[in-house]
Design goal:
The protein is of the alpha/beta class. It contains five helices and four strands. The chain has a four-stranded parallel β-sheet with strand order 2-1-3-4, with helices on both faces. The longest helix is centred in the middle third of the chain and has 19 residues. One of its GO terms (molecular function) is metal ion binding.
Length: about 140
């Protein structure tokens, strides 16, 4: 008998908002899927989207990038930089044939613990439906032709 597929999801989150929101989720004892591994960064504006590629290369089936809401960034405009980078990265993913549903870009504030739980559950359900992500390793091994 085969085991049900459980996706591995990596979350790159802002220290000031989303990480605090995820912490609030835990302290409020709100239940959510345990498939997400959180990596706390000072600001989403500093994320080099090669980190996302590295997450896929290391076995992630999905990625979440989440930070402060627009106009609430601790560093003034970091979330705007992240949003611009996401638009470019999304086009690159389309070009490479990577399903963009595997990456979720979202805003979660420090006071939105329930929103974090919702987001994690939604992403886990979506990625579970997509199945394991093996194409990245195949692309890396064979090269793009």
């Amino acid at each position: 008998m085969t085991e049900a597929f459980e996706p591995k999801i990596t979350a790159f989150v802002c220290n000031w908002c989303t990480y605090a929101g995820a912490d609030l989720t835990g302290t409020s004892r709100i239940k959510y899927q345990s498939n997400v591994r959180v990596l706390r960064l000072p600001c989403t504006g500093r994320i080099d989207f090669m980190l996302l590629a590295k997450a896929f290369a290391r076995g992630s089936d999905g990625v979440i990038v989440s930070g402060c809401h627009p106009n609430d960034c601790h560093y003034t405009s970091g979330n705007y930089h992240a949003r611009r980078r996401w638009m470019i990265y999304r086009n690159l993913m389309d070009f490479m044939g990577i399903d963009t549903r595997r990456v979720t870009f979202s805003w979660v504030s420090a006071a939105e613990g329930a929103r974090w739980a919702e987001l994690v559950n939604e992403v886990t359900t979506t990625v579970r439906a997509l199945g394991p992500y093996t194409e990245y390793k195949e692309l890396a091994l064979t090269g793009v032709e």
